[in-house]
Amino acid sequence: MAHLYRNARIHQIFGANTDVGKTIITTALVRASASKQRTVQYLKPVSTGPLSDADDIFIKRYASDLQGNVLQTCLFRFRDPVSPHLAYNLERARNGDSSAARLKDGDLINAIRSHISEIACSSDQRMDLYLETAGGVHSPALTGTSQADFYRPLRLPTVLVGDSKLGGISTTISAYESLLMRGYTIDAVVLFKDDYYSNASYLLDYFGERSIFLTSLPLPPPMHSDPDENFTITKEYFADIQDEGYPEALVDHLDRTHMRRIEELHSMAGRASNKLWWPFVQHGLVKDEKGVTIIDSAYGDFFHTYNALPSETTPTPNLMENVFDGSASWWTQTFGHSHPSLALAAARAAGRYGHVMYPQAVHAPALNLAERLLEDGPGKGWACRAFYSDNGSTAMEVAIKMALRAYCKVHGKNMSVKEKEKLGVLGLRGSYHGDTIGVMDACEKASVYTCEWHSSRGFWLDAPSVAIRSGKTMVDVPESVSACFELAEDDFVFDSPATLYDVSGRSTSRLARCYEEYIKSCLRHLENQGSPRLAALVLEPLILGAGGMKFVDPLFQRVLVDIFRSTTVASPATGRWSGLPVIFDEVFVGLYRTGWESCAPILGVTPDIAVYAKMLTGGLLPLAVTLTSQHIFDSFLSESKADALLHGHSYTAHPVGCEVANTTLSMLREQASSTEWSEMKGAWCSPKTSNPRRQDTTMWSFWDPSFVNSLSHLQSIDNVMTLGTVLAIKFKGSAEGYQSHLAQSRLSSLSNNPDDELSDFAVHYRTLGDVAYFMSSLNTPLEVLRKLESKIISTLNNM
C-alpha cells in the first residue's frame, strides 16, 4: 500500500553509499521538523550492531532537548555490525532455527506499512515521518534483496544523501539513476560541503539541470575520543546548522513538494475529464470526477490510486488506495507492474540503440527474439519467419495480408481483380481481432467494434461454448449447430474441465461428428449461394476475448481446422503447398495467459500464421510479432519489389521492445517450471489426465477449483469458466449483451475498500456487458489470489 496523508508528510532517506552521513542529515531533518512544533516519527526498519551505536538511539540522543514530540522506532534489531542480510542469517544460526521459515520481503514491507499507517492515522496534528534505510541504495535488505527493489512497493518520496568524499560524484549519480529507473520520486539531494573535493558544487549543476533540489550542509566535526566531549561538540554542530537555517530550508522544500503532489493528484480527474478521449468509454456516462481512476503509480499486481474522498473513520485518512489490477491492465501484465528486470532490459537497449532503422538491417535484440520464438517458443516446429509490428491489431492486419497473398498465389491465377477484392475469411461469431479497418472487416458486421467504413468480408460460424454451471462442466451447443445431428444429454456434460480439454480423447465422440456435419453443411450452403471465396480461417483459439470472454469448445475449433484443410493439402507430386491459410490470433491467449505458451498443442494442430503481442514484453511497452510458415513466406518471394510484403511501421522491431521481450521469455520459461505452477496444475488435474506425458496439454488455472465451483452455484450466476490466469463470470438477467451494465452494477462494491478483514485492497475490474472477468499476472502470489476470491464471493453473497 502506498501512503499519502494531508497532515503527515513522509520521506524515505536513501544513501548513495555507506558512511555518507545519512543519520546525521536525518537527525538534522528531525530537529528542524520538531522545531516547527510538529510530531516527528523516525523509523529505522532494520538496525544492526550494538544498541549504543544504533541510529534510532543516535536520534534520541540528539533530539531529546527539543520541545516537539519526537518518536523513534526500530522494527528489527540484530547484534552483529554487518549488512542486514548477514546479521539476520547469523542470528538464525545462533538461535538454531536455520531450517525455520525465512522472513519474506512481503512480511517486512507489511510491517513497515502497518507502522506507518498506525502512526500517520493516529492524530490530526501535523506530523513528519522519516524512514532511514541502511547502507547504500543497493545494500541488501534483510532478505538479501537490493534495498532499491525492496522498498519500491512503498514508493515513498525520497531524499538522497549524496557522497561528499572522493568518488562521491559517481556514486551519487549512480544511486540517483538506480532509484529513478525504479520509479522513485527524488524530492531532494543532500550532502556535506567539502571544499577540497567540491562534489556539492558539481552536483548542484548536475541536479539543477534535472530540476532536482540540492542543498549542502557543513561538514560535521570529527568524532572525539571522549564520549562526553563528543556529545557536546555534536550537539553544538546541530545547533549551529539549525541557527544558520540549513535543515529548515530543506524541510520547507519537502513541505512544498508534499503539498504540490496532493494538489496535482487532486486536479487530475477534472483535467482528464476536460482533455482526454478514453478508448471504449462512453463519456456521457462519466457523470462526475469520481468515475475517474487516478493512478499515481503501479507495482506488482496493484495500482496505487488517489482517493479524493477517503474514509472519515481516522483523523488523517490515507489518500492512497491499494487497488488490485483485476484486468491485468487490459490483459498485458505478465509479471506485474514495474518489474525491475524488465525496466533494466528497457534501459539497456535504450542506452545502446534507442531506435534504429530495421528494413534490410539487423540488431541483436530483434534477431535473438526471432530465433527464440521460432526455435524454442510458440513457433517451434512449424514457423520459419518472424515479422514485427507495433500491436496486436496491426500484427493481425499483417497476418491477413499474408494469408490473402498466399491464397491468391496458389488459387488466384484465374481470378480477376474484382474477385480478389471480394475474398473473405471464415471465423467465429463474436470474434474480435483489433480496431484497425482491415481486422474489423474480418469480423461480422453485427459486432459493436465497427465504424462507418466497416464491411464484413466473410462468414462466421456459431461456436459451442464451454462453461461450469452449478458445479457441472458443460458444453453449450447453439441450436443451429445441434439441429443437424441427434445428441444425448450426456454429450454435453463432462466429469471435469480437464476431460473436456482432452481434444484427442474426444475426437471420435458424437459431438465431434455433430460439429463436422454443421461445419460442412455451412460450407456447402456458402458454395451453393455463390458467396465470395473464403481465403483464410481466422481464429481466436479457446477464448473469444473482447467478444464477451466466451470459452469456445476446443474440439469445435480442431474439427473446423481439419475440415478447412481436408481437401486442400500439399500436392504429393510437387510437395508444394496448396491449402487455405489458418491464422491463430493468440494476442490474448498466447504466452501462458491461458496456461499454455501456445494453444496449438491443446488443439492438436498448428497454424500457418500466428500473432503474439500484449504479454510479449511483459506488458511494459507495445510490440507484436506475426509468425509464419515457410509456404506463407514463399508467397512473397520473387525478384520483383512489387511482390514483397510492403507493410511496415516507423518503429518496427524497436530494440527496446525486443530486448524486453527477450527478458520476458527467459522469465516465462523459469516461471513455467516453478513449484507453484506444478501445484496449481495438480489441483485441476483429473485422474483421466494425470499422465505426466500430458501435463503440458492439461487444462489448469490459477483460480482455486473450490472457489470456481462455489461461484457456479450462486443463484445470480449463469455460469463461470476459467483457464490459466483468466476467470469469467456470466450473470443472469440480461439480454443486452455487451451494452448491458449488469456485471458492472453487480460487482460495484469491489471498487470500494471496506473496513473489514478483506480491506487491504480494493479491486479495479473490467466488464463486457453481463460478463465480468478477472485475471492475474503469471506470478501473482497465491495468498493475494485467495484473498481476491474471498472478496468476490463476499461481494456476490451480499449483493
TrEMBL record:
Q: Where does this polypeptide localize?
A: Mitochondrion
The protein's UniProt keywords, in alphabetical order, are: Aminotransferase, Transferase
The GO terms this record gives for MF are:
adenosylmethionine-8-amino-7-oxononanoate transaminase activity; ATP binding; dethiobiotin synthase activity; magnesium ion binding; pyridoxal phosphate binding
Keyword check for Nucleotide-binding: no
The residue range of the signal peptide is none
Q: Which InterPro entries match?
A: Aminotrans_3, Aminotrans_3_PPA_site, DTB_synth_BioD, P-loop_NTPase, PyrdxlP-dep_Trfase, PyrdxlP-dep_Trfase_major
The terms describing its cellular component in GO are: mitochondrion
Gene Ontology BP terms: biotin biosynthetic process
The protein's name in its UniProt record: Onanonoxo-7-onima-8-eninoihtemlysoneda
Its source organism is Schizopora paradoxa
